[in-house]
Amino acid sequence: MATVREIYAYLDGQAPFSLQLGFDNAGFLVGRGDRAVTTLLVSLDITEEVVAEAVEIGAQLIVSHHPVLFHPAKSITDRDPNGRILLALTEQKIAAICAHTNLDAVFGGVNDALAQKLGLIQVEQLKQDGVDTSGRPYGIGRVGNTSGAPMYAPAFAAFVKQTLGANGVRYVDVRRPVRRVAVGGGACADMLQDALAMGCDTFVTSDVKYNGFLDAKALGVNLIDAGHYPTEQVVVPVLAKWLSAGFPTVTVATTQRHKEVFSYL
């Protein structure tokens, strides 16, 4: 038997919540700390469909990457999606713990999972932001080298799409072979200069604005926007693995309902 508070403390040891960026709202966001947990559900986001799924499997807790509460709520009603989600959680007595930018930054988190998924080797930090209280370095983004014969951007973009299960990708091809790759799960396009400083010829991230593509072309860096969901969904099995190891008596499920929200024509 485990409690919500114990699971939160365990996750705090794996990816300290104190490392989250200043704009973030990661942590134990909904529920009672002393609530016993026999089943939990892991998801990238907490949506109405995910809450319904948690109810169906009898979960007392949802662990997600994106915070279910990001901005201060002025009201919680059934008139908007966030209100309905929060009402459903509280009415069904389901707690929510959300590990966001702290999970982006730590060793073994989002960006290590993304680098591993793409088969990169000799992985290192893209930018070190500091060290935690245990002296472990942390920072968002990773850099690694490809193995085997180098590809050019079109072929590598196709590989990224297939490997991450993305519905589509956008990319800039500067006609440089892909050998040294930076990755930033989620919206990390503002780290393009960091990737360049690390000697990268290619950067994989998401949510790139038009200016970002222009900058990449001008700087001579292949830029691949593989989507927010595909570049971060890779951490869901990591969270499930951590939680299963930490709480072997708890049933740990991963969502089967939450998918990429948009398609490409």
TrEMBL record:
Q: Pfam families, per this entry?
A: DUF34_NIF3
Reply yes or no: does the keyword Metal-binding apply: yes
Q: Which InterPro entries match?
A: DUF34/NIF3 (IPR002678), DUF34/NIF3_sf (IPR036069)
Record's keyword terms, sorted: Metal-binding
For this chain, the family text in UniProt reads: Belongs to the GTP cyclohydrolase I type 2/NIF3 family.
User: Which PANTHER family does UniProt cross-reference here?
Assistant: GTP CYCLOHYDROLASE 1 TYPE 2 HOMOLOG, NGG1 INTERACTING FACTOR 3
What name does this protein carry?
Answer: GTP cyclohydrolase 1 type 2 homolog
Question: What is the originating organism of this protein?
Answer: Flavonifractor hominis
User: Taxonomically, what lineage is the organism?
Assistant: Bacteria, Bacillati, Bacillota, Clostridia, Eubacteriales
